[in-house]
C-alpha cells in the first residue's frame, strides 16, 4: 500500500474524529436533545428491554414510526445497561463519525477523484447546520442517513459486476432502512429506477433482478405495516390530508436549500425557482448519464437518490399532512445533493487542456467552497454560543426553559395519588407528561377527527394536564374543552399550564 493509499484513509479518519468532537461540543451542556419523537423512541426502547415489546409510554404499539430505530436503541440499552437519554450523544457522535468516514470512502472512488475536493466537501458536510442538528437528537434520521450511504456503497458494487449476492445485500440494507424510516421507500425507488434504466443487463436478467430486489427490499416494511394494521387498525397511525399545495411545498423545499446555501430569509423569493432548478437539474443529469450508459458511478447514485427523495418529500407533503418541510426532513438529501452539484466540476477540470485555465478554475472553485464553509461555520458558531456558551442547551425537554420550569419540577416529584385509579389522563403533550413524571397519558383528539372529539366529550370523568406553551392548533384546545365541560383546577401554574379534572 502506497503512502497515497494510506492517506485516503488517514485523512478521512481525521475528519471523522472532528465530526465526533463536533457532536460532543453541541451536546456538552445538556446531553442529547430530546423532542416528542425522541420520547416515543425512548419509551419503546425501554419497553423492549423491560418487557420484550415495542409499546410506547401509553401502552400501545409504536405505529407512527417504524420499529427498527427503537429496537436499535433497545439493543444498545440492553448491552450497556444505560438509558438512551444517557448514551444518546455518544451514539450520535459515533454515527456522525461513521457517516463522515463513509462519505470519505465514497469520494475517494469518484471518477476522477481529488483530495482537496474531498477535504472541502467533508468540511461542508460536518459543518452543515441541518446535519449537526439532526445528530444532536435522538432521531431516526441519524441511522437512516448512514444507511443511505451504506446502500450506495453496496449497490455500486452490484452495478460493477451484477453479482446476485451484492444485489441481495443492497436489498437487505434497503429493507432495514424501510423499517428505520418510512421515507426509506426512496432507497427502494432509487435502486429500482437504476435497475430499470441499466441497459447493460439482458432483459430476462433485469426482470429477475428487479423482482428479487423489490421483494426483499420491501419485505420488512410490509411485515411492519401488516403488524400495525393488525394491532391498531391503521398502517402508519392516523393521517390527515395535506393543507399545503404542491407550489407551497416546493417553496418550503427551496427555503431549506436557501438556508443551506447561506441565504437570508430576505432572499426566500429565490426559493421556488431554486427548488425547480435543483430537481430539474437532477433529472437532466440522470438522463445524461443514461444516454452515456454511465449509471454505475457513485456520482450517479447520489444524483438518483437526491432526485427520488426530493420528489418524494414534496409530493407526499402535498397529499399527507405532517410537519412542514424543514432541514430535518431534507437532511438525508444534503450529502447526495452536494455531491450531485459539485462532483461534475472534477470532470470539467480534467477536460481542460490548458493548465493555467485549469488552475484558475480550481482556484475559483476552492474560493467559493471556502466562502460557503465560512458562512455555515458562522451559523454553527452562533448556535454554539446560544446553546452552549449561554448555557441554554439543545432545544427540547432538557433545555433550560424546561429545567427551570415550575410545572416540570412539580411533575417530577408529584404524588400520583392525586389521580384516581382507572380514570383516563389526557394532555396536549402526553410525551412531556411521561418524560417528566413517568406517567402514561393520552393525547387530546385532533380537531380533524370529529368522531374522536365526540368520543372525548362523552367521557364522564377524566383528568387533563395542559401545557399552555405547547398548544397545538390541530388539537382541541383548553378553551374548547372549558366551553363544553366544567373543569376543576387541581393545580395551577399560570402561563405554564395546569392540572384539571372533569367529573360529571
Automatic annotation (TrEMBL):
Q: Where are the transmembrane segments?
A: 12-32, 62-80, 87-107, 119-138, 143-160, 166-197, 209-227, 268-288, 300-319, 331-349, 361-379
Q: Which domain of life is it from?
A: Bacteria
- Keywords on this record? Membrane, Transmembrane, Transmembrane helix
Q: What is this protein called?
A: Glycosyltransferase RgtA/B/C/D-like domain-containing protein
Organism encoding this protein: Mucilaginibacter conchicola
What does the record give as the organism's lineage? Bacteria, Pseudomonadati, Bacteroidota, Sphingobacteriia, Sphingobacteriales
